[in-house]
């Protein structure tokens, strides 16, 4: 993440459409079918015989992924509303796609479905009050370019090709327009449907299809320039690297600072490599002071001031951008930690190296250790939104198992799960309970790990689920239990 504050500081206005559909009759609709879709939108629905079908329905990850036999490409919110009215009157299963990077295996319950592809909702518009309005088909690169070119900034994800809407619904938003399961269009903000607004910021995929959102922006720090440093390390200095980061965590991580450490493997030798990316949203001298604490331990270091709008293409030598290619298997497990347990991270390094040597087909698997400043997140009260990790988001440890050969699927899943569970142990994570960022979740974790451990959160979220999605049409992505008895 980069920028001056967390998603929880964003101002969001959302329009939600919610539609009804589980289990469809085996009838093909659309351009090549019998036009059973409403005549006003039948030209926007296509079955699998359409030449563009694969292109429009392919997602980033094919691991435990949903499958589709139709695609609906609404062009306006009226189209979307009418489409959901139609779908909710049938037994069809359906799923909305913004960026298509949701990789949770929970999505695998959605099979032979209608994809609602929101790509036509890709507008990003700066407003006269310096807010920015974003359609649900926009990606972070679209948002960053528009906001940055206006001399403004806001917090965004580290990967430019990720859809803005899906990522922000797992954290925090401003005002929204949402379409409910039955096609009803509603607004959500601090003043309009505030209960829904609360739930959308942290559990938003559970309540409807967000068509549009408005975020607050801030004047660009440091004239729109940020310092990017990429470093490489050997195993000999890994222990010292972890010590430096823990020293930063013991005091208070600078709010301008974001750190990412990656365990990867050389594609030829399969030897384990250690990469680090440091982004500092401030003056070069202050950035270099932080980088210098690591550079004396590194094998190589490069650093430069770059425009915020170009940051994602530069960070980690462009590795993040190259990971945008769709169609691979991506199976991720993750957990949040208070500190970085040195012994465990060293054990993971050794185990990862052995795993790749034994399973070369999984050599593109990566381990991410992400560390952020928490000031913006912790400034707001715990009750501010459905996002439950205000005091438990110091580090995110992500085990990203990636491959194309399913022969390694089982062993890759077991390896990632084993180390996720180990890192989640209280004496290692530093937290009494398990905490998992919802958008990084695998789906096998207790629901409380994603949405909070306090009963008042369970009560509030379950009430919202029952009110806004009574039929359970939005259960595909980390379902919020509709009753207290179903929480884990």
From TrEMBL:
One Pfam family it belongs to: FAD_binding_4
GO molecular function: FAD binding; oxidoreductase activity
Cofactor section: FAD
Record carries keyword Oxidoreductase: yes
Keywords: FAD, Flavoprotein, Oxidoreductase, Signal
Keyword Flavoprotein part of the UniProt annotation: yes
Listed InterPro entries: FAD-bd_PCMH, FAD-bd_PCMH-like_sf, FAD-bd_PCMH_sub2, FAD-linked_Oxidoreductase, Oxid_FAD_bind_N
Cleavable signal peptide: 1-23
Domain of life: Eukaryota
Boundaries of every FAD-binding PCMH-type domain copy: 63-220
Family, as annotated: Belongs to the oxygen-dependent FAD-linked oxidoreductase family.
Name of the protein this chain belongs to: FAD-binding PCMH-type domain-containing protein
């Amino acid at each position: 993440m980069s920028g001056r504050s967390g998603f929880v500081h964003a101002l969001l206005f959302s329009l939600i459409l919610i539609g009804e559909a589980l289990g469809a009759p085996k009838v093909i609709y659309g351009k090549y079918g019998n036009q059973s879709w409403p005549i006003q939108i039948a030209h926007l629905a296509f079955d699998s015989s359409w030449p563009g079908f694969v292109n429009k329905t392919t997602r980033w990850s094919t691991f435990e992924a949903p499958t589709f036999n139709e695609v609906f490409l609404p062009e306006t919110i009226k189209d979307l509303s009418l489409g959901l009215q139609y779908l909710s009157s049938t037994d069809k299963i359906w799923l909305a796609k913004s960026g298509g990077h949701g990789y949770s295996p929970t999505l695998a319950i959605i099979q032979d479905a209608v994809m609602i592809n929101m790509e036509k909702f890709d507008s990003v518009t700066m407003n006269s009050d310096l807010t920015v309005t974003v359609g649900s088909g926009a990606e972070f690169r679209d948002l960053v370019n528009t906001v940055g070119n206006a001399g403004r900034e806001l917090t965004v994800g580290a990967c430019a090709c990720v859809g803005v809407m899906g990522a922000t619904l797992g954290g925090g938003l401003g005002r929204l327009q949402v379409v409910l399961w039955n096609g009803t269009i509603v607004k959500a903000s601090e003043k309009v449907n505030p209960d829904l607004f609360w739930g959308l910021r942290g559990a938003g995929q559970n309540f409807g299809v967000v068509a549009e959102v408005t975020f607050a922006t801030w004047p660009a720090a440091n004239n729109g320039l940020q310092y990017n440093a990429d470093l490489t390390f050997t195993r000999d200095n890994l222990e010292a690297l972890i010590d430096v980061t823990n020293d930063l965590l013991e005091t208070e991580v600078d709010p301008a600072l974001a750190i990412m450490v990656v365990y990867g493997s050389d594609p030829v030798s399969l030897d384990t490599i250690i990469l680090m990316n440091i982004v500092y949203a401030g003056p070069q001298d202050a950035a270099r002071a932080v980088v210098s604490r690591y550079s004396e331990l590194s094998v190589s270091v490069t650093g430069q001031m770059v425009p915020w709008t170009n940051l994602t293409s530069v960070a980690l030598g462009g590795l993040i951008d190259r990971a945008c290619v769709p169609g691979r298997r991506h199976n991720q497990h993750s957990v949040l930690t208070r500190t970085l347990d040195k012994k465990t991270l060293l054990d993971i390094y050794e185990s990862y190296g052995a795993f790749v040597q034994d399973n070369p087909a999984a050599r593109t698997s990566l381990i991410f250790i992400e560390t952020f400043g928490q000031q913006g997140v912790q400034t707001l009260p715990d009750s501010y939104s459905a996002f439950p990790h205000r005091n438990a988001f110091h580090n995110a440890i992500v085990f990203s198992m990636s491959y194309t050969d399913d022969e390694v699927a089982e062993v890759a899943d077991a390896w990632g799960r084993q180390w996720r569970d180990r890192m989640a142990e209280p004496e290692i994570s530093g937290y009494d309970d398990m905490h998992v960022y919802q958008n990084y979740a695998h789906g096998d974790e207790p629901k409380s790990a994603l949405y909070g451990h306090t009963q008042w959160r369970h009560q509030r979220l379950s009430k919202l689920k029952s009110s806004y999605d009574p039929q359970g049409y939005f259960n595909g992505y980390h379902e919020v239990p509709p009753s207290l008895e179903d929480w884990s």
